[in-house]
Amino acid sequence: MTIRQNPDKKFQTIFDKAPISLWIEDFSEVKKFVDQLRASGVDDLKAHCKSHPDIVHECVRKIRVIDVNKATLNLYKAKNKKALLSGVDKTFTEESFEIFGKELLALAEGKSSVSGEAVTKTLTGELVNIIVYVTIAPGYEDTWSHVLVAITDITERTQAEEKFRVLATKSLVGIYIIQDGVFKYVNSKLAEIFGYTEKEFIDRLGPKQLTFEEDWPTVSENLHRRMEGKEKSIHYTFRGITREGKIIEIEAFGSVTLYLGKPAVIGTLLDITDRKQAEKKLRDSEQQLSLIYDSVGDVLYYLSVEPGDCFRFLSVNQAFLDATGLAKAQIIGKPVEEVIPEPSISMVKDNYRKSIQEKRVVRWQETSEYPSGVRIGDVSIAPVFDDQGICTRLVGSVHDITERVQADMALEHSNRALKTLSACNQVLIHTEDEAQFLNDICHAIVEQGGYKLAWLGRAEHDRAKSVRPIAEAGFDEGYLESLNIIWADKKRGRGPMGIAIRTREPSIVQNIQVDPRFSPWRQAALKHGYQSSIALPIMVDDKMFGALSVYASEPYAFIEDEVNLLEELADDIGYGISMLRLRKERLQTEEALQKSERQYHEVIKTARDAFVSMDTEGNITDWNPQAEAIFGWKRAEILGQPVSETIVPPESRKKHKQGLKYYLANGGGFALNQTVEITAQHQDGHTFPVELSIVPMQTNGTKRFNAFIRDITERHEAQQNLKASLVGSIVAISRAVEARDPYTAGHQQRVSQLARCIAQEMGLDSDRIDGLRMGATIHDIGKIHLPAEILSKPTKLTKTEFELIKTHCQIGYDILKDISFPWPVADIAWQHHERLDGTGYPQGLKDEEICLEARIVAVADAVEAISSHRPYRPALGINVALEEIEAKRGKWYDATVVDVCLKLFNEEGFSFK
After folding, report:
1. I want to staple 190 with a disulfide (CB 3.0 to 4.6 A). Which of 186, 280, 500, 661 is the partner?
2. From CA 272, how far away is CA 250, in angstroms rounded?
3. What is the C-alpha to C-alpha distance for residues 693 and 516, in angstroms, rounded to an integer?
4. In 3-state terms, what secondary structure has residue 710?
5. Across the strands, what pairs with 259?
6. Ramachandran region of residue 21, left (φ > 0), alpha (ψ -120 to 50) or beta?
7. d(CA 409, CA 392)
8. CA distances from 645 to 652, 657, 683, 830 (A)
9. pLDDT 10s digits, 578-626
């Protein structure tokens, strides 16, 4: 289409009435911009735009819209052209910019027409899916000054495609499109049905490859009828073939549609194999159920009689399922051996054979254990003969008497358990010794309770996790010795005893003859007449002690009520053991306490420290001879007197009372369970330093505080003398440095002054501040070994001279390291030129590897050095110094120290004296 500078009337009419959005735009500035990029050396526009994403936005701003039609105003919901053109930047989305970038690259590569799908925005903010066609008008390829942009709204199509995609993805049936004899689309469910991937279907497989050979004519005919228009939609079933060659039943729906402008068949496939099989089984079952009356309350069942002494279940009624807890799938078609449990099966088959041989109904009582539980029934079986007199069927019925029999058993067993519990409680009351108690319990279980065997096993914590018998009654000789039970999760630990200990829950074997858990001990147990057993965990003070094992001479002996009573017995045994041990411990504790108190009083009397005991009112309750010697008060004079009015100086009394009150309210406080130094008062009123530690104690519900006090007057004096001596040493060293290099001495004094103020502002304690001051005073002592001409050189140092200067840190450390300062004086000299980032010297330390005192001196040293005169340069001033440490804050210098230093100068008016 030719676009002219002044379009004629006919073109304008066509343009305005076009049903799609049309734009006439001037891209000439964009063309110039692209040409400039190429001229500047940009060969790969695509890579350049990717690394400079703002280029696309800049190009958009360079486009000039010449005209738009009415369809454009409607699409973007603009009132008029002015409104649209003033807000055209609002119509772009991030996707729009991305598409425009691709189109721009295509135009720059020489294409005259490009297109693409994008999302744009109306002036009201609604998102619209569009297809954009951009065409350079013929004759304007060199300037791009006339470009026609056509936009088609595909929102409805996009939404429809998205809905179809979502529905197809989540569909529980297979969805397909067939065109030209192959699948053009399948969803994941259809691919799953036939065992292929979706990718393997598209343009590769056709319906014939998925259809059972005999059914292909039907499928082919249905496809042709739809494609020829004879049937709009068809519903039918056929047999399909999976990738593995398995035949499956398929239900198909299909109709004709247009796909990409050509006729196609769209439809669904449903795998109905399971449904077909279920329908067949249901028909067979319904025919058999005509022989059975589900309305009968008794159990009814129907057996086939087959060669080889095989009896197979043909059908059962609902009562059978309810009684056993089995499903029909577990019964129908199964031989009786797979349904009726041991040990009943042998007796049952004998009665079946007897009924056939004697051609009569045979009756017996049967007890069996099914998933529903133990069932007891009166059973009858009747043979059915054919015309030749051959027995082909057996009809059985069972009248369930479980509840009646169990009620009788429950009463008997509950009485047995109650007698056992009562007898054991009597043992608990009268026994004092633990071993005797446990043996008496086992005898009570057997003799009063009537059980066959009772024994207690202790859970050992050895490598094998063995169970050691520690008490027993009623056993046959040799049985317990042969058990070799463990409580680890291994074969010999999976019986009732091992399970009870491991899980802390009762473990019951109702039938030793058949229960697989008892297989390691079955033969020996049955030989001694044991038919069922229970193991109950014994807990002592919430810790696993072991388990009680009780055996009965009949199967299914342990009913619910009986188990509950035996659990109560196990709890009583654990409680009894705990009480006996507690009683024994209490007696031992009382004896030990009496002995301890005697020793305590002897120790207190002979202690070299003063011992003072105080109650919660603050009154003195005990006072040893050393306390008399230290404080001057006799024991008789001081007992009952308040501590705060006797040995606590007046200035400390308020703090003492507050500390006592705080402890009673919160359980903590100053000097508790630690050693501190305080000031005490003598009877004559003079004060002296003491070392104090207080231990809170509680005896028989009564709280008291025991204080151990040592007079440290002599030690204090020695420390003061030592400190004075050390200070004198430091002063002497400083003077020696000053005598050799007055500049260095003055520098050290000023650094010491600033470092001390920084430490005070940071809240360091006074002793640590004194040490810092001393260390800063001689931090450059190592320079005493350097040539004086280097220290006072008026010109810049050479690299060799500077390396020599740097050795003063190590030299200073070597001078000071063997002096027993109570502060890190040697480390200050050694580390004051280290930097947080590891670039300092001599060790290259980082961060917390540098001691805090050295980090403080490093800042003070830098500020003083920069602000003061040097032999090789004039003073730079305090402002330059502060700017330097602020610039290196956190990199070279400790951030907290720098902040405090800046505050001292900027807010508190600090200056060097």
Report:
1. 186
2. 6
3. 66
4. strand
5. 262
6. beta
7. 39
8. 10, 11, 10, 51
9. 888 888 888 777 777 667 666 666 667 666 788 888 888 889 888 888 8
Residues of the chain with pLDDT under 70: 1-8, 157, 160-169, 282, 284-296, 406-418, 421, 423, 427-430, 475-477, 593-594, 596-603, 605-607, 666-673, 699-701, 718-745
pLDDT of residue 555: 87
- Estimate to the nearest angstrom the gap between the alpha carbon of 911 and the chain centroid: 57
List all residues 6 or more positions away from 449 whose beta carbon is below 8 Å from its beta carbon. 416, 417, 419, 420, 423
Q: Can you read off the two tokens belonging to residue 157?
A: 């199509």
Cβ(71)–Cβ(149) under 8 Å? no
User: Contact 569/548 with Cβ under 8 angstroms?
Assistant: yes
CA distance 493 to 502: 9
Written as six digits, the tokens of 283 are: 């028909």
- Alpha helices per DSSP H over 52-133: 54-62, 70-75, 81-86, 94-108
**Token code pair at residue 408:** 């009788």
Which strand (E) or helix (H) includes residue 238? strand 233-241
Nearest CA-CA partner of 89 in 63, 119, 127? 63
> At a CB cut-off of 8 Å and minimum separation 6, what does 164 contact?
none
> So what's the pLDDT on residue 263?
87
Give the pLDDT confidence score for residue 166 in this predicted structure.
66
**Cα(802)–Cα(132) distance, integer angstroms:** 72
Q: What is the largest CA-CA distance in the chain?
A: 140
Residues comprising the chain, all counted: 913
**The pTM is what?**
0.32
pLDDT for 672: 64
Compute the distance between CA of residue 556 and CA of residue 901 in angstroms, rounded to an integer.
88
